[in-house]
Amino acid sequence: MNLELISQLASAVVMVWGALAAIRASRSATRTALLSNLLRSVALLLLVRLIADFGGWSSWFIYLWMFFASGYVVAGYLATTVWVGLPLRAESTKGSRTEMVNLGVSGVLTLAVSGALVIPGLMLS
Hints:
The chain is an all-alpha fold. The protein has four helices and no strands. Helix content is 79%, strand content 0%.
């Protein structure tokens, strides 16, 4: 097996995981947890964009990418439909603290992956 195929298979697994995590985010109990789960799944999407070799329109991976990217669109729709009915934070202080830590970790992860995408482009230009 060549390394390009292994990279595409690993990226496909991460895309499936991220799309399912994004769709599952709409089951969150609070808005903070919903945002945390969506940020985590977006970080996975950006990570795949960082490491995957798409191979052009003749490759199978670009079509898989578009299919699971539509899963992110469905997740966005589901999140907007449940957003209004969710409380902002958990009632207990321990639950609220846990949600805020999860949101912070998800935000840092998303910023780190986004930075890994942007910084090399800035260095090359």
